[in-house]
Amino acid sequence: MFEAKCSHCMKTEIKKFRTYKIKNGPERTIFQCNHCGTNFSETCNTPLVGLRRPISLIVMVLSSIAEGTGINATARIFNVGKNSIYRWQTRLGDLKETLMLFALVNQFFKQVIEGDELYTKVDKNHPQDQSEGWTIVLMDRASRFIWDIQCGRKNRTMFKKTIKHLSKVLDQTEELTLLTDGERRYGNLLFEICNEVVKTGKRGRPRKTLPKGVIVRIKNKGSQSHKRGRKRQKYQDPQPEHPETIQNIENKEIHANHVEAFNASLRRRCAAYRRRTNTYAKIKNRLQERLDLIWIFHNFTNIHFTTRQVPAVALGIMTQGIKTEDLFYIHKIK
Question: What pTM does this model have?
Answer without folding.
Answer: 0.88
